[in-house]
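Incident log, entry 3
Record: ESX secretion-associated protein EspG (308 residues)
Problem: checksum mismatch between cached and fresh output.
Input:
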Amino acid sequence: MRSSLMRWAHNSFQGKKDEMTNSVSAPPLTLTPGAVWVIQALLEIELLPHILGLNPWVVAEGAPGLEDPGVKTLQERKRDGSGRLGPAVIDETGKVHPAVADWFETLAIPDVMLSCLGTAGDVYMAAVLCRRDGRHAAASRVADEVIVHDAGQIRGMGDLAQQVMSWIINPEAPAKAAKFEPITVPTDKFTKALGDVIHRNRGAAAMFGGLGLTPSQQRIVLAASDRPARTIGIAATQFNARGEYVSEASVALIETSEGLVVNGPRRGRDKRWWTQIEPATPAAVERALTSLVESLPTPHWRNHSRRG
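Fresh output:
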């Protein structure tokens, strides 16, 4: 069970690779955290996104030499799924493959980033999707397995939604969107009502009925809250010369017994936060992510640059 969930997680995070933005490409890399550190050291990259839980490289440690066992392992050429030998991650001189270097630099110094924490049973997953200029790279981690790859071309929020949906959909048994009337409620009132039901054992009908939820909508909310099959929570971060800005809101995709549900933010003209819960169709996920990105200082995925 655990191994199948790990395959689901990493298969999901490989995303679209048919339209590469780089002139030099390479297949996705499956690495140990130690191998990630070796590549960081050779590229002199101190930090990768902290959500991945990877060790930093400290300048005082220096870079590993050609005799380092980790370097030697990454110099080996491995066969892909079709049996062909792929390029080595590190060449005979100790230089990192250009495409891999590009991915790591995009992950280390992005303009904007989606970060994700996911669960599937007892398996925990962390992932990021980063953009720097016109390049996109992604990385995911499940236990001691890290996958780093090019994320292809993301031309708009629709492409971003497709990438995010691929993170939660199990290719072996894809779930469909749940069927219910969308829910729009004030976030503060919804959070309090949900807490009263879950933690204080208050009646769902009384708590949710006060928010105007129908019995079928209440059933969806409870299904999403009570041991869902898979969940991912997504936040957005923009970077500039002053530091980073993390979105106040987040998006959640949840696989329930009723189907897939997306929970996204809405902000009224009075700046009050609302929660929008919808069947997780591609259009609904796109709306949720658009609202998330619009809550950032630069309300666009492609137009923001950390250089100002």
